[in-house]
Amino acid sequence: MIFGGSPAFAQPRHVGRPNIGDRDRFFELLGGALDRRWLSNGGPLVREFEARVAEIAGVRHSVATCNATAALELAIRAAGLHGEVIAPAFTFPATVHAIGWLGLTPVLCDVEPETGNIDPKQVRRRITPRTSGIIGVHLWGRPCAAEELTAIAEEHGLALILDAAQAFGARYRDRPVGGHGTAEVFSFHATKLLNTFEGGALVTNDGALAARARAMQNFGIVGEDEVALPGTNAKMSEAAAAMGLASLAGIDDLVARNRRRYEAYRERLAGIPGVELVAPARWSRPSYHYVLLRVHAERAGLTRDQLMALLRSENVIARRYFYPGCHRTVPYFTGDRRFPHTDRLAGSLLAVPTGAAVTVGDVDRIAGLIRLAVRHATAVAARLRHPAPATPDPVPPPPPVPAAQSPVPADEEATECHQPGGSHP
Ligand SMILES: *Cc1c(COP(=O)(O)O)cnc(C)c1O
To answer: How far is the centre of ligand 1, averaged over its atoms, from the C-alpha of 235 (Å)?
Structure first.
């Protein structure tokens, strides 16, 4: 396409289109809620969904919420955090917003160079007398070093919350993600593996914490009309729970299919100089909901952004997760430069299309485009710098730093969600 002609894909291929569960079951469950005229406030569908989530996560308590950001805020409040909270710079901004929005001080730390997950050694360096908690993130649904973080939290008397927004259905060693720390938080946003349109859950083995979070999510009300705690409204609706219940049965199948796409990328990209598939840690079983490439520009002859521009011109909507890193966004920029690994990853990683709407055949073609781009890197780079006047460049220019300020390109608005600059991870 960069050299003329039509794009390789007539319809765009995205990083994450929503997984739609069993429609008939969804409408049946929704009909039940309408018949009962019980639409929110802990109706039977939300209660059943919570029980299923707790079972899958292997925990005692689950509180379903309107989204994961609210669940993170509930976890922070219910755990009584104050002062400073440590979180990784390389994450979706919601992790850090949850801290800042509540008036606490996010203290960002760098990540592990290989996995991109929060680095326990860096966490230790950021602990001060004002620190009250740590929020670890299972980035891309790949479990972070939860045991090491637990040890640090215990040693310093800190709470540990795990942002498992991307990790529902993933496994940490031989157990499901969900039971570490003070609480873990899942997202069921439209673009996540399991969706409830919008939704989330706080899961924990601490009954008292779960009870506080449950009261706080409903205006602090306990019993019929006693307000026992400051609260907010973070409840999940019955309609959302219906969507979740209608989709849960298919979750193992989704993981298996995602894994096949991941394996297909691995096979088809093998041997392309400078293009490396980011492998999950051997000890984990991720949900394979995201496929990440690392572009080594010197060897590939193309930068990550050049490869992305080329793919987009072919209707392959690859994305820079999580460029530029929270430490470089307007609300959290301090000038601190101690983020070399986040900077390197934010500058070289590319999330490529996968999920239910992408076939293994599509993966073949996408990998073929990447192979071709690297083989003809010099010509591709030259053409990207000086597009031929006869071929209008369909690629929107990359958003200026910070990405949080950039407008959503019009062609992505319809299918993608609320992450500034494009889709939600
Ligand atoms: C999606 C996501 C969130 C926010 O989830 P919502 O349900 O949209 O609020 C938070 N953290 C991470 C790491 C995410 O990927």
So the answer is: 16
4: its two tokens = 């003329």
Q: Which atom of ligand 1 is nearest to the CA of 191?
A: 1
Kindly state the helix (H) or strand (E) to which residue 78 belongs, with its residue range.
helix 68-78
One-letter amino acid identity for 279? A
Omega within 30 of 0 (cis) for the link into 322: yes
**370's tokens:** 């990447």
* Crossing angle for the helix pair 23-36 and 238-248, to the nearest 10 degrees: 150
**How far apart, in whole angstroms, are the C-alpha atoms of residue 7 and residue 380?**
15
Distance 139 CA to ligand 1 centre (A): 11
**C-alpha 425 to ligand 1 mean position (Å):** 7
Distance 120 CA to ligand 1 centre (A): 22
Report phi then psi at 123, rounded to 5.
-60, -50
Contact 328, 402 (CB under 8 A): yes
Q: Tokens for 421, please give them.
A: 């600059």
**Angstrom distance (rounded) from CA 114 to CA 331:** 27
Pocket of ligand 1 (CB under 6 A): 67-69, 91-92, 94-95, 137, 163, 165-166, 187, 189, 200, 424-425
Confidence at residue 25, expressed as pLDDT on a 0 to 100 scale: 97
Nearby residues of 415 by Cβ (< 8 Å), 6 or more positions away: 12, 14, 17, 423
**How far is residue 192's CA from residue 183's CA, in Å, rounded to a whole number?**
20
Structure confidence at residue 425 (pLDDT)? 62
Which residue intervals of 166-221 are DSSP H helices?
207-216
Tokens of 157: 């008397």
Q: Which atom of ligand 1 is found nearest the CA of 71?
A: 9
Reported in sequence order, the residue ranges of 244-347 that DSSP labels E, i.e. its strands, are 275-277, 284-285, 291-295, 316-317
Contact (Cβ atoms closer than 8 angstroms) between residue 52 and residue 29:
no
Question: Which pLDDT belongs to residue 316?
Answer: 97
Atom of ligand 1 at shortest distance to CA of 69?
9
Return d(Cα 26, Cα 118) in angstroms, integer.
37
Q: What radius of gyration, in Å, describes the C-alpha atoms of the chain?
A: 22
- Cα 142 to ligand 1 centroid, rounded to whole Å: 14
Amino acid at 422: G
Phi-psi region of 58 (alpha: psi -120 to 50; beta: other; left: phi over 0): left
pLDDT given at position 389: 56
Low-confidence ranges of the chain (pLDDT < 70): 1-3, 387-425
